[in-house]
Amino acid sequence: MADRAASALSLPEDWPAHPDPILALNRMGSFDWDLDTGLFSMDAQAHAIFDLRPDEYDGRPESLSVRVPAAESHRIDLLVAQAIKDGRENYGAYFRVKRRDGTLRWTHTQGYIRRDETGRPRRIIGIVRDATEELSERAVRKDAAAQAAARRDQTNVVQIATAALAHARTVQDVIDVVTDAQGLTLLGSTSLVLGLVEAGRIRLVAEGPAGTYVPGTRITRIDEPYPMGEAVRTLSPCFIESPAEFAERFPILWPHITDMHITSAAYLPLIAQARPIGAMGLLYDDRSGFSPEERNVLVALGSSIAQSLQRAMLYEQEKDLAQGLQQAMLPRTIPSVRGADVAVRYRAATVGGTLGRDIGGDWYDLIPLPGGRVGAVIGDVQGHDTHAAAVMGQLRIVLRAYAAEGHTPATVMARASVFLHELDTDRFATCLYAEADLSTGVVQVVRAGHIDPLVRHADGSCHRVPVEGGLPLGLSAEFGRLEYPVSTLELDPGHTLLLCTDGLVEQPGSDLDDGLEALTTLVAKGPDDVRDLAARLIEVAEERGGDDDVALLLLRRRVPEAPRPGGRLQQHVAPGDPEALTHARHLIRAAVRSWGAEDRADEVELVADELITNALIHTEGSAIVTLRVLEGSGRRLRVEVEDSSSALPRRRDAGEDGVSGRGLLLVDRLADVWGVEARGGGKCVWCEFLVYEHT
Fold first, then answer.
1. What is the pLDDT of residues 120-129, one digit of tens each?
2. Are the beta carbons of 359 and 547 closer than 8 angstroms?
3. Is the model's pLDDT at 8 over the cut of 50?
4. What percentage of the chain's residues is helix, strand, coil (to nearest 5)?
5. What is each CA distance from 635 to 632, 685, 688, in whole angstroms?
6. What DSSP assignment string belongs to 142-164?
7. Nearest Cα to 124, choosing from 168, 163, 92?
8. What are phi and psi of 213, to 5 degrees?
């Protein structure tokens, strides 16, 4: 039968790591149901309630059918499903269990449904207990509500305190929960002290109200005759039920607290993993003695605080380790880039609105490449832990290695994806790799599930650059061979390329497009200097907070100092790849314009396209096109197309109806000079164009 008066169980995320004493004293067992995997974990007390030995249970809810009759199981399944559908946080129900000897016994279960930020149920945690003595077959419905209400009154303090502690990440967070005015009112105590065990001593870390601790007790040895020391030594609570008992048992301490009119006190050991980590003292001026129920509640309270403290200590240790690891994995310095101003920033996530920091897999990198080119990388490994930071470091290194080997941007990204998959980790990563030729301003961009880049113009205007993307890195095995299309953009002098992770874009209550629009506006209004702009963007991210890291890279192409820019461009064109041919034409046109030869851009592009096409058609191999500026007797643009065939091209008449044969005639007509050179096992067809100075 459903227990609709069941109270909400507000329990910490790692509960039940160690079952609270209150559960065992009330013959309660705990369970943890992972809705994603379907595993239904139980502690030893829960096994006893279902009359199952640990080796008889494999963690699947279906395996409980040997003890739970089909009708009872069906009714509970409907109850849980309805609670999830209604969006409720908890449910409660009585059901019967068939024990090993065939007898039926009443059992009660109470569960709390945990959901993620999208509202999707992910986990149910709760308790089960033998309810046979509590209920009779004739009055089960009438007694159920009364029993649930009584138990709710007994455990209300623990539940509320645990709910507050569930959000505590650091030791200071735990201290703040138990020492603020609301906490003291909830606990009903006049004064509270909290100490931690350190090297055989107890160090007082908190008292409430502030300034109520006894002088000389800030640090005490565990073997000294103080109640906190006794609780730690014996691993048992120390209950003092009258002023006379306090004065008799602890004569050193009592004279210092007589003006507080203390009538009773409870000193609780804080035990985690069978080891004392501290003690807490609650002093009262309005009660004498403690009932068994009150003692149980206080013991459970101490257990909950101990678990929260241990979790906070481990979190702080892991945070320090992870921050050191991530700082070691990120580039120590960013190389200076000729022809560009660069600024990078990293900001760790703010956790739960506290000063604590989480750690993640966001990274940036800048890779010098041959020919004056540079590779800019921004990426984000899934997760916020040391594993994410470690994967990030490895992925950053291999991406840098693949780029330095001279692979195309698409190949760099594809190889990085295969590497991440073969790393035997369940993490994937988003990434954006931009390879910029600063002499021409041509930028080739490859995107793997990452957000698009932004470009800020010299006049301050800013816009998002849509980049065709592929799947995140690490998914190659699930989706077969990965293809990463290459997009090309032109970065004019004075323009700035902005790459960032989604922590800079995502805002609570807004979708990604709105966040990108807000970022675009912010960049447009920001300072001109890239370092000042980067600092401003991180400042805004700090003000906004958030539970995700931020990595940011800004690359601004400088206005060239020389009046006549020049450089060298080389591109590999594979056969059977029309996109590669289109891409090569685009690069050639952009380079010619960048080098101040706009008047001959059409001619150069047309001749280069003809030579590349001839190489692909007549040699059945790939072609390498090189475009460069030659200085000397006049300024010239030289186009070279290399292939692997030693056969020389022949100029022939195509005839009136011919569709081919005019290639070399076109080259001869448009170029100022052209020729053919032998190159090892192949040849190079070249041509040159005079570039005239503009006055």
1. 999 999 999 8
2. no
3. no
4. 35, 30, 35
5. 6, 20, 10
6. HHHHHHHHHHHHHHHHHHHHHHH
7. 92
8. -75, 160
